[in-house]
Design brief:
Structural class: mainly alpha
Number of strands: 0
Radius of gyration: 19 Å
Shape: rod-shaped
Order of helices and strands: HHH
Helix content: over 70%
Number of domains: 1
Strand content: under 5%
Distance between the termini: 17 Å
């Protein structure tokens, strides 16, 4: 595989990872809004926030994993960019 092909692949993977992260963040925010709109239970704001976090744990986990994947994909893209630039310089 050439450095150009590596760069294209890394760019596509990075784009896909960013989109996935955005989708997971959107899903988390929507689920959070639904719970808040229905009235989150709790004596005070800290308790309501904690209960909300527990109820949305799966969404938080998915959003966190997507964020980590996007960070890793960015690193691969940056490395591929550097290798491509060095190859172009000769």
């Amino acid at each position: 595989m050439s450095y150009l092909e590596d760069l294209k692949t890394a760019q596509n993977e990075y784009t896909e990872a960013l989109v996935k992260h955005m989708e997971e963040t959107f899903d988390l925010k929507n689920a959070e809004a639904e719970i808040v709109a229905d009235g989150a239970e709790g004596k005070n704001q800290a308790e309501r926030d904690a209960k909300l976090r527990v109820r949305l744990q799966g969404y938080h986990d998915a959003e966190h994993a997507a964020n980590i994947n996007a960070i890793k994909a960015r690193g691969k893209f940056e490395n591929a960019s550097r290798y491509f630039e060095c190859d172009m310089k000769g």
